[in-house]
Design brief:
- The two termini are 33 Å apart.
- The chain has 13 helices and twelve strands.
- A four-stranded parallel beta sheet has the order 2-1-3-4, sandwiched between helices. It has a four-stranded parallel beta sheet with strand order 6-5-7-8, sandwiched between helices.
- It is globular.
- It has three domains: 121 residues, Rossmann fold, CATH 3.40.50.1400; 122 residues, Rossmann fold (3-Layer(aba) Sandwich), CATH 3.40.50; 172 residues, Aspartate Aminotransferase, domain 1, CATH 3.90.1150.
- It is α/β, with parallel strands linked by helices.
- Helix 11 runs parallel beside helix 13.
- GO terms for molecular function: lyase activity; metal ion binding.
């Protein structure tokens, strides 16, 4: 690794493969990115290849870098992006407290990738000798497959964007594994719809074992339907559109505009069939985010989480005894004086270690934009009181008016925002993050001694623990 300039290092996080051709393609892309940006690109992998994320970050620090942009080279937002990588980055922040790590979004469904997939398909269609018209040709977009509906939905979205305006009769989507429909089912479906030709388009970044097995699945379908032309397009690979998509995500992360799609995340919203995942804390294992991390290199989770969250024990949803509201001389709630303790200089310490919002049995969620529009004056009063309370218990800036149903708390760093998000979710308060800003629920019917107090309580507790116990 060359000596750093004032520019950041780019941590390009691939999934990893044991296939030599796949690794070579990944490294060629990393080289292209480095040449295009004129910066140091540090490749690393979640599994199956070296170096792991932790080692790559440590190498950057040893080389003198003080800022890293971490980009997940993944097409969709699933467990690796939502859990494994954030855990690895948070561990690195603990080892290197002066290191600025900016975490980017996965590649997702970008225009550049739509264009790249379309060009792969057009090249395959133009090369066929059957001359079957477009309106009798079906496209079968095949993704990797995930246990996360958010990631799988991106495959459906890409399929629809490929169909629009291109004249093909049908565009169906399926998955290599984990979820349905699979390759065989999609091909049978296309035939049942009347397709006279099918183009299978692998929605994969690089070659490797999955592409090889997907090709075998297509070969099996050809044997099952010998009279039907079943073509296979090239995977995304080193297409210029992939490079453009990576550069876009780098620019977003560097300038602080990258945002994770928390609104459709199964860990933040109740999704049918995935109820057990709702509210789960971020965690990883020694095959992914914690690969390469030794126990003596970073503090154990027990040393940074409040007692309630430790040892993986389930969090009680039993109501907690609530502190009464305290009012100032003007009759307003003195939020900074509600929670007492033995130390008058740290009024929130007792709350942070033992207390919590009294509504623990249900998730406190934002209201719909329609509910806000139905009572704008009531909503404005609630937002004003929430903003006042949040400022009093944290001293942080508060933003309002951006999105109906949400109030934004601007954190000091992305690391702080990530930690607070995890801790607030445990308190059964809905929260989402955009960069360094946490968005907390608001609604016109929120009561001072009910929902408003619950939000301020959760933030007061978790903010205190972050400032006095985690950073301290």
């Amino acid at each position: 690794m060359t000596h750093p300039s004032n520019q950041p290092a780019l941590l390009l996080i691939g999934h990893g493969t044991d296939d030599p051709a796949g690794l070579e393609e990944y490294h060629r892309m990393a080289t292209l990115v480095g040449e295009r940006l004129g910066i140091v690109v540090q490749p690393c992998f979640l599994e199956l290849a070296d170096p792991p994320i932790s080692q790559a970050i440590d190498d950057c620090v040893r080389a003198g870098f003080r800022q890293i942009v971490a980009l997940p080279l993944l097409l969709g937002a699933a467990g690796h992006q939502k859990n494994d990588i954030p855990v690895a980055l948070n561990q690195a922040r603990m080892r290197h407290p002066n290191l600025d790590i900016r975490y980017g979004s996965p590649l997702g469904v970008q225009y550049a990738l739509v264009r790249a997939m379309a060009e792969r398909i057009e090249t395959t269609y133009a090369a066929t000798s059957a001359r079957i018209p477009r309106n009798r040709t079906a496209l079968a977009l095949i993704g990797r497959g995930s246990s996360d509906p958010d990631s799988n939905a991106d495959v459906a979205r890409m399929a629809r964007l490929l169909w629009e305006g291109r004249g093909f009769g049908w565009v169906e989507y399926g998955f290599f594994s984990i979820t349905r429909p699979d390759v065989a089912a999609i091909i049978r479906h296309c035939i049942a719809l009347g397709a006279e030709q099918i183009i299978v388009a692998p929605y994969l970044l690089f070659t490797g074992r999955i592409l090889q097995r997907m090709t075998s699945q297509v070969e099996s379908a050809r044997k099952e339907h010998p009279a039907l032309p079943i073509l296979m397009a090239e995977h995304l690979g080193l297409h210029e559109g992939v490079l453009a998509a990576i550069l876009q995500r780098y620019d977003e992360a560097l300038h602080g505009v990258a945002a994770v799609n928390c609104d459709l995340c199964k860990y933040r919203q109740v999704m049918p069939g995935f109820e057990d995942d709702h509210g789960r804390l971020q965690k990883s294992d020694h095959h992914h985010g914690l690969r390469g991390v030794h126990h003596h290199d970073a503090p154990a989770l027990d040393t940074i989480l409040p007692p309630r969250y430790r040892n993986g024990k389930p969090v009680s949803v039993a109501p907690m005894s609530a502190a009464p509201l305290v009012y100032d001389d003007e009759g307003r709630v003195a939020w900074d004086r509600v929670w007492g303790g033995d130390d008058p200089n740290n009024p929130f310490c007792e709350l942070a270690l033992a207390g919590g919002p009294p509504h623990r049995g249900t998730l406190l969620e934002p209201v719909s934009p329609e509910a806000v529009a139905a009572d704008p004056e009531g909503y404005a009063r609630v937002v004003a009181e929430l903003a006042r309370g949040l400022r009093m218990v944290t001293g942080l800036p508060v933003v309002t008016g951006n999105t109906p149903g949400w109030v934004g708390l601007v954190c000091e760093s992305e690391a702080m925002a990530l930690w607070l998000l995890r801790a607030i979710v445990v308190e059964n308060v809905s929260v989402r993050r955009e960069g360094c800003t946490l968005f907390l629920p608001a609604g016109p019917d929120f009561r001072l001694d009910g929902e408003i107090k619950n939000v301020v309580t959760a933030v007061a507790k978790t903010y205190h623990y972050w400032k006095e116990h985690v950073q301290g």
